[in-house]
């Protein structure tokens, strides 16, 4: 993993803010209500004090993750187009470097959700014939860069090796 | 039966060309397709709506509910009939201008063009209805999606052979030969051995669990009676009986599915043929083969055989997920397996001798032993919780197995890379050797968990269409170099 060339493209700082917002939204809309329900359910079999303590610990843990992980994830996302392949590096706990030969790209999606539209960012999904969904994903990339990357990837001709 | 079936479904070298350009007339399915298709479609309706059918048949016959349920089923059945009729009436196909064209549909029409060079495999299937009517189903698959791209559900055998021959000519495949060298053949003894070597403990345990659940539904007195009649010895005997039943079922289903299995080489294509009730014939062009997987679980090795899968890139949605197009050889001896790998992968330039392949990094052994040790400790804890007794003694004795297994698994891991192929071998007890064509690789991924980062190790995942192949763990820097090499070759093709 130390073979990082000099021209890795990183995500713009706005993507970090977007990751934080998305993470906090997930925390507030999913983890908070789920933990509340779980705590009430636990309280029916345990003492309230224990249930509340466990629920509080779990919420604190999730909040810590929501505040800490997005910045780390943002710093780990990087991509690089080389002569024959696209490299994508990602992952906080489990790190991954994906190499997709350009001639294998079947199609490319540029997606914008509501949050991404607010920030002027986009998500690029790169598909090959491997049939397991998108092989490569780059979230939080500038829209113009996403479209340029898409055009670059679909311009390559090849037999797709299938 | 083998000889006659082979004669029926043999690609004819001298078949009359039908790709005569745009003047080629459109052809239609055989009229018997109405009957041949209706039964499976009706069965599909029954399968999808079985809860309603069950309620309708077992419920209150005097009430209005059953009448509603039955009319619901009849409605869907009529839709199946209408679909069958429309399918027959509107489907037309031809090979014209060097490509396969299929058009269908009444309200929403579809015209599909398949380039013969994109065809991954051609499958000829004859279920009992096809055989009774002298017909065949032709499935033509590309790598593009999760369905059969060219499905012609009922043609005469002659027409099916002619179509396949025309497609082979259109994609400029090597000429078909009447005499096909047989690469592998499994007789009844082989298939019985294959079925017998399957482990059925899981199925027996599941059946036992279901029976126990059923017993739980009985009233307390019934449960007491049952307990008196059975006891520990009775349960053990019942388990053995279930295991025996599952074992016999496994043998019978293996014989039925793979009856008369033959894999032969016809021109440039591997042709696999098998099946007792439903006869299936798959043709895989060798230049489309993406990987060969040689599976040798310990129990099969004990009987001196393994199984082999030859896989192309076409995939389709199946009942249990994505199904790949493949030729599966149930029983193959080691020497024959090496020969078959060479035949299935033209220009195989990697020695099929594990002693010269590279080993996994030695640090991977430390990691495997640590994980095995952790499992052992967990077994000790479980034994301590259970207290003294034969079960905890068994756990303590068995706790050595994860460590020993980890050691053997590590020692069995091998990999090799040549100009055209990658080989990966994993597993000691459940040994699996996979040879991947480098020019079929779709992407290369290097994965590191937190422990692997600390240890300076990494794992490479090779993705081909519909499959992923793991290489043994390597030094992280070596993994980067290897990933670059593999990706470079894949990108160059």
Features:
heterodimer, A: alpha+beta, 2 domains, 7 strands, elongated, disordered N terminus, B: about 500 residues, alpha+beta, 4 domains, seven-stranded antiparallel beta sheet, 17 helices, 22 strands, about 45% helix
Structure description:
- Chain A has 162 residues and is an alpha+beta fold.
- Helix content of chain A is 49%, strand content 23%.
- Chain A has helices at residues 13-43, 48-76, 114-119, 143-155; strands at residues 9-10, 78-81, 85-90, 95-101, 107-111, 121-127, 136-142.
- In chain A, the strands form two sheets. In chain A, strands 1-2-3-4 form a four-stranded antiparallel beta sheet. Chain A has a three-stranded antiparallel beta sheet with strand order 5-6-7.
- In chain A, a hairpin with a 3-residue loop joins strand 2 and strand 3 (85-90).
- Chain B has four domains: 2-170, no CATH class; 189-258, no CATH class; 289-360 and 413-492, no CATH class; 362-408.
- Chain B is 46% helix and 27% strand.
- Chain B is built from 17 helices and 22 strands.
- In chain B, helix 7 runs antiparallel to helix 10, helix 13 (362-386) packs antiparallel against helix 14 (390-398) and helix 13 runs antiparallel to helix 15 (400-412).
- The longest helix of chain B has 28 residues, at 231-258.
- Chain A binds chain B through residues 1-3, 83-85, 91, 93-104, 128-132, 135-136, 158-162, and chain B through 120, 143, 146, 288, 290, 313, 315, 322, 439-450, 453, 458, 463-466, 468, 476-477, 480-481, 483-484, 486-488, 490-493.
């Amino acid at each position: 993993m130390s073979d990082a060339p000099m021209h890795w493209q990183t995500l713009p700082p706005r993507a970090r803010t977007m990751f934080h917002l998305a993470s906090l939204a997930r925390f507030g809309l999913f983890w908070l209500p789920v933990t509340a329900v779980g705590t009430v359910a636990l309280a029916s079999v345990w003492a309230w004090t224990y249930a509340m303590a466990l629920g509080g610990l779990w919420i604190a843990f999730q909040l810590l993750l929501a505040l800490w992980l997005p910045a780390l994830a943002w710093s780990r996302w990087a991509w690089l187009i080389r002569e024959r392949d696209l490299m994508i590096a990602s992952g906080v706990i489990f790190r991954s470097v994906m190499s997709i030969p350009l001639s294998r790209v079947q199609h490319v999606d540029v997606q914008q959700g509501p949050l991404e539209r607010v920030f002027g960012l986009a998500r690029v999904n790169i598909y090959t014939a491997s049939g397991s969904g998108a092989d490569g994903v780059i979230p939080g990339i500038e829209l113009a860069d996403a479209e340029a990357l898409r055009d670059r990837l679909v311009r390559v001709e090849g037999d797709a090796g299938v | 039966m083998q000889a006659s079936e082979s004669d029926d479904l043999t690609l004819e070298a001298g078949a009359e060309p039908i790709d005569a350009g745009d003047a080629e007339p459109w052809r239609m399915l055989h009229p018997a397709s109405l009957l041949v298709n209706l039964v499976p479609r009706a069965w599909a309706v029954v399968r999808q709506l079985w809860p309603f059918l069950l309620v309708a048949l077992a419920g209150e016959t005097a009430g209005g509910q059953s009448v509603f349920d039955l009319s619901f089923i009849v409605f869907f059945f009529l839709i199946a009939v209408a679909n069958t009729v429309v399918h027959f009436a509107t489907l037309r196909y031809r090979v014209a201008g060097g490509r396969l064209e299929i058009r269908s549909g009444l309200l929403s029409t579809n015209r599909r063009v398949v380039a013969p060079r994109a065809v991954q495999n051609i499958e000829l299937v004859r279920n009992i209805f096809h055989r009774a009517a002298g017909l065949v189903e032709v499935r033509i698959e590309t790598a593009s999606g999760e369905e059969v791209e060219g499905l012609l559900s009922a043609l005469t055998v002659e027409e099916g052979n002619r179509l396949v021959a025309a497609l082979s000519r259109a994609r400029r495949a090597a000429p078909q030969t009447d005499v096909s060298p047989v690469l592998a053949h499994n007789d009844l003894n082989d298939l019985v051995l294959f079925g017998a070597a399957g482990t059925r403990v899981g199925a027996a345990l599941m059946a036992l669990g279901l029976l126990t659940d059923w017993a739980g539904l009985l009233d307390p007195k019934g449960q007491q009676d049952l307990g008196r009649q059975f006891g520990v010895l009775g349960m053990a005997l019942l388990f053995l009986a279930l295991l025996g039943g599952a074992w016999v079922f496994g043998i019978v289903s293996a014989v039925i599915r793979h009856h008369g299995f033959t894999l032969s080489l016809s021109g440039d294509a591997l042709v696999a043929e098998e099946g007792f009730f439903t006869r299936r014939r798959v043709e895989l062009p060798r230049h489309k083969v993406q990987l060969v997987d040689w599976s040798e679980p310990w129990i099969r090795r004990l009987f001196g055989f393994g199984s082999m899968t030859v896989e192309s890139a076409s995939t389709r949605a199946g009942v249990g997920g994505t199904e790949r197009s493949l030729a599966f050889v149930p029983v193959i001896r080691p020497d024959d397996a090496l020969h078959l790998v060479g035949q299935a992968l033209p220009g195989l330039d990697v020695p099929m001798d594990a002693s010269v392949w590279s080993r996994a990094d030695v640090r991977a052994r430390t990691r495997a032993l640590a994980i095995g040790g952790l499992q052992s400790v967990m077994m000790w804890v479980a034994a301590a919780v259970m207290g003294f007794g034969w079960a905890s003694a068994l756990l303590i004795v068995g706790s050595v197995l994860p460590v020993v297994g980890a050691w053997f698994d590590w020692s069995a891991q091998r990999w090799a890379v040549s100009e055209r192929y990658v080989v990966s071998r994993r597993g000691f007890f459940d040994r699996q050797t996979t040879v991947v064509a480098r020019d079929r690789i779709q992407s290369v991924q290097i994965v590191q968990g937190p422990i692997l980062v600390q240890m300076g190790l990494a794992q490479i995942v090779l993705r081909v269409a519909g499959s992923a192949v793991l290489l043994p763990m390597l030094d992280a820097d070596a993994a980067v170099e290897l990933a670059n090499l593999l990706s470079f070759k894949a990108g160059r093709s």
